[in-house]
Amino acid sequence: MKSKEEKNIIIIQLFPDEEVNNNLKQACKKHDIKSAVLLSGIGQLKNASLGYFKNKGNYTLEKFDEPLEILSLTGTICKQRQDYIFHLHAVLGDEEKNAIGGHFFEGIISVTGEIILLKTNLDFQRKTDRETGLQTLYLK
Fold this sequence. Notes:
Radius of gyration: 15 Å
Largest sheet: 7 strands, antiparallel
Number of domains: 1
């Protein structure tokens, strides 16, 4: 993973066999991120996991072993205690140009990954909502 920052814009380059979430956390630590918006993510993944929220305690998870293009990766990041909480969604495309999407759980870079973050000083967190069981946005 390589990353560079200028005027609160961080560009992250990921390489084959690097896990997205772990490297994204490393970049957040390196650039001292309090909160960020993931503006853009493109590249290609293997072993991607996407989910769909059905109801409280019921998140369907599907793993895709074949290489898939990252057509879009967006979301928010916030620092809570000493960890980073991601809420990311992805649209992925297969070789036949079919698209699938959902909550992004994990993935490993197949060819390349390019992620652009907007670093902010906004103070927000994720808290578990009692009704839905989801970690929802909480603005202080």
